[in-house]
Design goal:
single chain, about 325 residues, mainly beta, ten-stranded antiparallel beta sheet, nine-stranded mixed beta sheet, 25 strands, elongated
Length: about 325
Protein backbone atom coordinates (compact mmCIF):
# COMPACT_ATOMS: atom_id res chain seq x y z
CA UNK A 1 0.00 0.00 0.00
CA UNK A 2 1.46 3.39 -1.03
CA UNK A 3 0.97 5.83 1.77
CA UNK A 4 0.75 8.83 -0.51
CA UNK A 5 -2.60 7.38 -1.57
CA UNK A 6 -3.77 7.10 2.02
CA UNK A 7 -6.22 9.85 2.76
CA UNK A 8 -6.78 10.77 6.39
CA UNK A 9 -8.17 13.58 8.10
CA UNK A 10 -5.39 15.49 9.84
CA UNK A 11 -6.23 18.50 12.05
CA UNK A 12 -8.86 20.41 10.11
CA UNK A 13 -9.26 23.81 11.74
CA UNK A 14 -12.14 26.09 10.69
CA UNK A 15 -10.75 29.64 10.64
CA UNK A 16 -14.01 31.29 9.69
CA UNK A 17 -17.30 29.90 8.56
CA UNK A 18 -20.67 31.16 7.46
CA UNK A 19 -21.67 34.28 5.63
CA UNK A 20 -19.53 37.36 5.64
CA UNK A 21 -21.58 40.36 6.67
CA UNK A 22 -21.87 43.03 4.03
CA UNK A 23 -23.60 46.38 3.83
CA UNK A 24 -24.30 45.99 0.10
CA UNK A 25 -28.05 45.40 -0.33
CA UNK A 26 -27.21 42.96 -3.14
CA UNK A 27 -26.09 40.52 -0.47
CA UNK A 28 -29.38 40.46 1.45
CA UNK A 29 -31.42 37.26 1.11
CA UNK A 30 -35.21 37.15 0.92
CA UNK A 31 -37.68 34.29 0.56
CA UNK A 32 -39.80 36.13 -1.98
CA UNK A 33 -40.04 35.18 -5.63
CA UNK A 34 -38.39 38.02 -7.46
CA UNK A 35 -37.89 36.30 -10.77
CA UNK A 36 -34.88 37.34 -12.83
CA UNK A 37 -35.13 40.96 -11.82
CA UNK A 38 -32.70 41.58 -8.97
CA UNK A 39 -31.36 38.00 -9.15
CA UNK A 40 -28.00 38.15 -7.39
CA UNK A 41 -25.77 35.21 -6.39
CA UNK A 42 -22.83 34.99 -4.04
CA UNK A 43 -20.65 32.31 -2.44
CA UNK A 44 -20.36 32.26 1.37
CA UNK A 45 -16.78 32.43 2.63
CA UNK A 46 -15.47 29.27 4.31
CA UNK A 47 -11.76 29.35 5.18
CA UNK A 48 -10.13 26.13 6.40
CA UNK A 49 -6.62 24.84 7.19
CA UNK A 50 -5.08 21.41 6.50
CA UNK A 51 -1.77 19.60 6.84
CA UNK A 52 0.38 17.43 4.59
CA UNK A 53 2.67 15.03 6.48
CA UNK A 54 5.90 13.80 4.93
CA UNK A 55 6.97 10.34 6.09
CA UNK A 56 9.83 8.10 4.88
CA UNK A 57 7.62 6.29 2.37
CA UNK A 58 5.75 9.24 0.91
CA UNK A 59 3.24 11.93 1.83
CA UNK A 60 0.07 11.51 3.86
CA UNK A 61 -2.51 13.82 2.32
CA UNK A 62 -5.41 15.51 4.11
CA UNK A 63 -9.02 14.67 3.49
CA UNK A 64 -10.25 18.05 2.27
CA UNK A 65 -13.78 18.60 3.52
CA UNK A 66 -13.99 22.19 2.23
CA UNK A 67 -16.99 22.93 0.01
CA UNK A 68 -19.23 25.89 -0.79
CA UNK A 69 -22.80 26.03 -2.08
CA UNK A 70 -23.52 29.38 -3.76
CA UNK A 71 -26.71 31.21 -2.81
CA UNK A 72 -29.18 33.49 -4.49
CA UNK A 73 -30.71 36.73 -3.19
CA UNK A 74 -34.17 35.48 -4.17
CA UNK A 75 -35.54 32.11 -5.23
CA UNK A 76 -34.35 31.16 -8.69
CA UNK A 77 -36.85 31.42 -11.54
CA UNK A 78 -34.51 29.47 -13.85
CA UNK A 79 -31.43 27.25 -13.58
CA UNK A 80 -28.51 29.35 -12.35
CA UNK A 81 -25.07 27.80 -12.84
CA UNK A 82 -21.97 29.40 -11.29
CA UNK A 83 -18.33 28.74 -12.17
CA UNK A 84 -15.50 28.57 -9.57
CA UNK A 85 -11.75 28.44 -10.02
CA UNK A 86 -8.48 28.55 -8.08
CA UNK A 87 -7.14 32.08 -8.50
CA UNK A 88 -3.52 32.40 -7.36
CA UNK A 89 -3.43 36.04 -8.48
CA UNK A 90 -5.15 36.88 -5.17
CA UNK A 91 -2.29 35.57 -2.99
CA UNK A 92 -0.10 38.69 -3.06
CA UNK A 93 -2.94 40.97 -1.98
CA UNK A 94 -3.96 38.51 0.75
CA UNK A 95 -0.41 38.46 2.15
CA UNK A 96 -0.18 42.24 2.15
CA UNK A 97 -3.49 42.63 3.94
CA UNK A 98 -2.84 39.90 6.53
CA UNK A 99 0.95 40.26 6.96
CA UNK A 100 1.51 36.64 5.88
CA UNK A 101 3.88 34.89 3.49
CA UNK A 102 1.76 32.20 1.89
CA UNK A 103 2.79 30.79 -1.48
CA UNK A 104 0.89 28.93 -4.17
CA UNK A 105 0.84 25.13 -4.11
CA UNK A 106 2.64 23.38 -6.97
CA UNK A 107 0.26 23.06 -9.92
CA UNK A 108 -1.92 19.97 -9.71
CA UNK A 109 -1.52 19.21 -5.98
CA UNK A 110 -4.97 20.60 -5.16
CA UNK A 111 -7.57 21.04 -7.90
CA UNK A 112 -11.31 21.64 -8.21
CA UNK A 113 -13.21 18.35 -7.80
CA UNK A 114 -16.48 20.14 -8.64
CA UNK A 115 -16.07 23.56 -10.24
CA UNK A 116 -19.69 24.41 -11.11
CA UNK A 117 -22.82 24.56 -8.99
CA UNK A 118 -26.44 25.02 -10.04
CA UNK A 119 -29.36 26.59 -8.20
CA UNK A 120 -32.55 25.11 -9.57
CA UNK A 121 -35.87 26.98 -9.94
CA UNK A 122 -37.63 27.66 -6.65
CA UNK A 123 -34.46 27.35 -4.57
CA UNK A 124 -32.03 29.85 -3.06
CA UNK A 125 -28.96 27.61 -2.79
CA UNK A 126 -27.20 24.95 -4.83
CA UNK A 127 -27.94 21.37 -3.83
CA UNK A 128 -24.47 20.14 -4.88
CA UNK A 129 -21.61 22.37 -3.66
CA UNK A 130 -18.29 23.04 -5.34
CA UNK A 131 -15.34 21.23 -3.74
CA UNK A 132 -11.61 20.53 -3.89
CA UNK A 133 -9.56 17.36 -4.26
CA UNK A 134 -5.94 16.48 -3.55
CA UNK A 135 -3.73 14.49 -5.92
CA UNK A 136 -2.27 11.04 -5.24
CA UNK A 137 0.61 11.65 -7.66
CA UNK A 138 3.81 10.89 -5.73
CA UNK A 139 5.95 13.14 -7.94
CA UNK A 140 3.71 16.17 -7.36
CA UNK A 141 3.45 15.53 -3.63
CA UNK A 142 7.22 15.17 -3.44
CA UNK A 143 7.57 18.81 -4.47
CA UNK A 144 6.00 19.99 -1.21
CA UNK A 145 8.51 21.63 1.13
CA UNK A 146 8.57 20.86 4.84
CA UNK A 147 7.81 24.01 6.80
CA UNK A 148 6.22 25.80 3.84
CA UNK A 149 2.84 27.50 4.14
CA UNK A 150 0.61 27.28 1.10
CA UNK A 151 -2.70 28.92 0.24
CA UNK A 152 -5.43 28.13 -2.30
CA UNK A 153 -7.84 31.00 -3.09
CA UNK A 154 -11.12 29.72 -4.58
CA UNK A 155 -13.26 32.35 -6.31
CA UNK A 156 -16.66 32.38 -7.96
CA UNK A 157 -15.87 33.85 -11.38
CA UNK A 158 -19.01 33.78 -13.54
CA UNK A 159 -22.62 32.83 -14.01
CA UNK A 160 -22.39 30.43 -16.95
CA UNK A 161 -26.14 29.79 -17.20
CA UNK A 162 -29.07 32.02 -16.27
CA UNK A 163 -29.68 35.74 -15.95
CA UNK A 164 -28.29 36.33 -12.44
CA UNK A 165 -25.31 38.51 -11.68
CA UNK A 166 -22.56 37.98 -9.12
CA UNK A 167 -22.74 40.18 -6.02
CA UNK A 168 -19.94 42.69 -5.62
CA UNK A 169 -18.70 41.21 -2.37
CA UNK A 170 -15.63 39.64 -0.77
CA UNK A 171 -17.82 36.67 0.16
CA UNK A 172 -17.12 35.20 -3.26
CA UNK A 173 -13.60 34.09 -2.26
CA UNK A 174 -12.51 31.41 0.22
CA UNK A 175 -8.89 30.87 1.30
CA UNK A 176 -7.79 27.31 2.09
CA UNK A 177 -4.36 27.03 3.72
CA UNK A 178 -1.92 24.13 4.05
CA UNK A 179 1.30 23.48 5.96
CA UNK A 180 3.77 20.64 5.53
CA UNK A 181 5.32 18.79 8.47
CA UNK A 182 7.65 15.85 8.84
CA UNK A 183 6.53 13.45 11.59
CA UNK A 184 5.38 9.91 12.23
CA UNK A 185 2.88 10.33 15.08
CA UNK A 186 -0.65 10.29 13.74
CA UNK A 187 -2.51 12.41 16.29
CA UNK A 188 -5.90 11.55 14.82
CA UNK A 189 -5.51 7.91 13.71
CA UNK A 190 -5.49 4.37 15.11
CA UNK A 191 -2.86 1.60 14.88
CA UNK A 192 -3.54 -1.28 12.49
CA UNK A 193 -1.12 -3.78 14.04
CA UNK A 194 -1.81 -6.45 16.68
CA UNK A 195 -1.14 -5.63 20.32
CA UNK A 196 1.61 -7.80 21.85
CA UNK A 197 -0.02 -9.94 24.59
CA UNK A 198 1.27 -10.06 28.16
CA UNK A 199 2.73 -13.57 27.79
CA UNK A 200 5.18 -12.22 25.18
CA UNK A 201 6.35 -9.28 27.33
CA UNK A 202 8.17 -11.21 30.09
CA UNK A 203 11.56 -9.67 29.31
CA UNK A 204 10.38 -6.09 28.80
CA UNK A 205 11.51 -3.37 31.22
CA UNK A 206 10.76 0.28 31.83
CA UNK A 207 13.38 2.58 33.37
CA UNK A 208 12.65 6.16 34.50
CA UNK A 209 15.34 8.78 33.97
CA UNK A 210 16.24 12.46 33.54
CA UNK A 211 14.96 13.45 36.99
CA UNK A 212 12.01 11.07 37.24
CA UNK A 213 11.64 9.03 40.40
CA UNK A 214 12.18 5.29 40.21
CA UNK A 215 9.14 3.13 39.60
CA UNK A 216 7.19 2.15 42.68
CA UNK A 217 6.13 -1.24 41.39
CA UNK A 218 3.52 -3.81 42.21
CA UNK A 219 3.11 -6.80 39.85
CA UNK A 220 5.05 -5.14 37.01
CA UNK A 221 2.49 -4.28 34.27
CA UNK A 222 5.23 -3.81 31.67
CA UNK A 223 5.40 -7.58 31.68
CA UNK A 224 1.82 -8.36 32.74
CA UNK A 225 -1.60 -6.77 32.91
CA UNK A 226 -2.77 -5.87 36.41
CA UNK A 227 -1.00 -3.94 39.11
CA UNK A 228 0.68 -0.64 38.36
CA UNK A 229 3.93 1.29 38.11
CA UNK A 230 3.99 4.86 39.30
CA UNK A 231 6.47 7.65 39.89
CA UNK A 232 6.87 11.43 39.92
CA UNK A 233 7.91 12.89 36.57
CA UNK A 234 8.97 16.55 36.23
CA UNK A 235 8.85 18.17 32.80
CA UNK A 236 11.66 16.86 30.61
CA UNK A 237 11.96 13.60 32.51
CA UNK A 238 11.54 10.30 30.72
CA UNK A 239 10.96 6.59 30.82
CA UNK A 240 12.81 4.21 28.50
CA UNK A 241 11.31 0.84 27.56
CA UNK A 242 13.52 -2.04 26.47
CA UNK A 243 11.51 -4.61 24.49
CA UNK A 244 14.32 -7.15 24.53
CA UNK A 245 14.53 -7.37 20.75
CA UNK A 246 13.59 -5.34 17.67
CA UNK A 247 9.93 -5.20 16.73
CA UNK A 248 8.10 -3.68 13.78
CA UNK A 249 5.12 -1.70 15.11
CA UNK A 250 2.73 1.10 14.18
CA UNK A 251 1.38 1.98 17.61
CA UNK A 252 2.20 2.13 21.34
CA UNK A 253 -0.16 1.43 24.23
CA UNK A 254 -0.02 2.54 27.87
CA UNK A 255 -3.09 2.20 30.04
CA UNK A 256 -3.16 4.71 32.92
CA UNK A 257 -4.00 3.89 36.53
CA UNK A 258 -7.73 3.09 36.74
CA UNK A 259 -8.09 4.56 33.23
CA UNK A 260 -7.59 8.13 34.50
CA UNK A 261 -5.89 10.21 31.82
CA UNK A 262 -4.45 12.54 34.47
CA UNK A 263 -1.99 9.72 35.21
CA UNK A 264 -1.31 8.86 31.56
CA UNK A 265 2.25 8.28 30.42
CA UNK A 266 1.37 9.77 27.01
CA UNK A 267 0.67 13.35 28.04
CA UNK A 268 0.07 16.29 25.72
CA UNK A 269 3.34 17.81 24.43
CA UNK A 270 5.30 14.67 25.28
CA UNK A 271 7.83 13.57 22.67
CA UNK A 272 8.42 9.93 21.74
CA UNK A 273 11.73 8.53 20.52
CA UNK A 274 12.84 5.12 19.22
CA UNK A 275 16.23 3.43 19.01
CA UNK A 276 17.75 0.14 17.92
CA UNK A 277 20.75 0.35 20.26
CA UNK A 278 19.62 2.55 23.16
CA UNK A 279 22.09 5.29 22.24
CA UNK A 280 21.02 6.76 18.89
CA UNK A 281 17.48 8.12 19.07
CA UNK A 282 14.98 9.16 16.39
CA UNK A 283 12.01 11.35 17.27
CA UNK A 284 8.58 10.13 16.17
CA UNK A 285 7.00 13.49 16.95
CA UNK A 286 5.09 15.32 19.69
CA UNK A 287 1.66 14.40 21.07
CA UNK A 288 -1.09 16.98 20.65
CA UNK A 289 -3.20 15.60 23.54
CA UNK A 290 -3.15 13.03 26.34
CA UNK A 291 -4.04 9.51 25.25
CA UNK A 292 -3.63 5.84 25.99
CA UNK A 293 -2.69 4.82 22.44
CA UNK A 294 -0.21 6.47 20.08
CA UNK A 295 -0.72 5.69 16.37
CA UNK A 296 1.98 6.03 13.70
CA UNK A 297 1.52 6.86 10.04
CA UNK A 298 3.87 4.01 9.11
CA UNK A 299 5.41 1.05 10.92
CA UNK A 300 8.87 1.54 12.47
CA UNK A 301 11.48 -0.91 13.73
CA UNK A 302 13.04 -0.48 17.16
CA UNK A 303 14.00 -2.24 20.38
CA UNK A 304 13.86 0.84 22.62
CA UNK A 305 11.08 3.41 23.12
CA UNK A 306 11.61 6.59 25.15
CA UNK A 307 8.85 8.95 26.27
CA UNK A 308 9.98 12.45 27.31
CA UNK A 309 7.31 14.36 29.23
CA UNK A 310 6.37 17.88 28.17
CA UNK A 311 4.91 18.71 31.61
CA UNK A 312 5.43 17.49 35.16
CA UNK A 313 3.06 14.85 36.45
CA UNK A 314 2.72 11.73 38.53
CA UNK A 315 2.67 8.82 36.09
CA UNK A 316 0.96 5.51 36.77
CA UNK A 317 0.51 2.77 34.18
CA UNK A 318 -1.26 -0.57 34.53
CA UNK A 319 -0.27 -1.99 31.14
CA UNK A 320 2.23 -1.22 28.37
CA UNK A 321 2.54 -2.76 24.92
CA UNK A 322 3.00 -2.09 21.20
CA UNK A 323 0.96 -2.86 18.07
CA UNK A 324 3.16 -5.28 16.15
CA UNK A 325 3.10 -5.32 12.34
Amino acid sequence: MKLYKFFTAIGVIALAAGFTSCSDDDDVYTDGFGGVEGQVVLAPTYNESYKFVKIPTGVVTPNITWSVAPRSRVRAAEDLTMKFEIDNSLIEAYNLENNTEYVALPDGVVTMAVSEATITPGNTSAETPVSLTVTDDAALLGRLEVGAEYIVPVRMTAVTQGSARIAVSATNVSYITFNVSEELINNSGDPTGTIVPKEDRASWTGTPGDGASEWNTWNNPIQENGGYNYGNYPAGSSVTFDLGKEYSFDGIYSYPFYGQSVYALFKANSEIFISSNGNDWTSLGVLSSARTTVALYAAVQARYIKVVLGAGNQIATTAFSIYEK
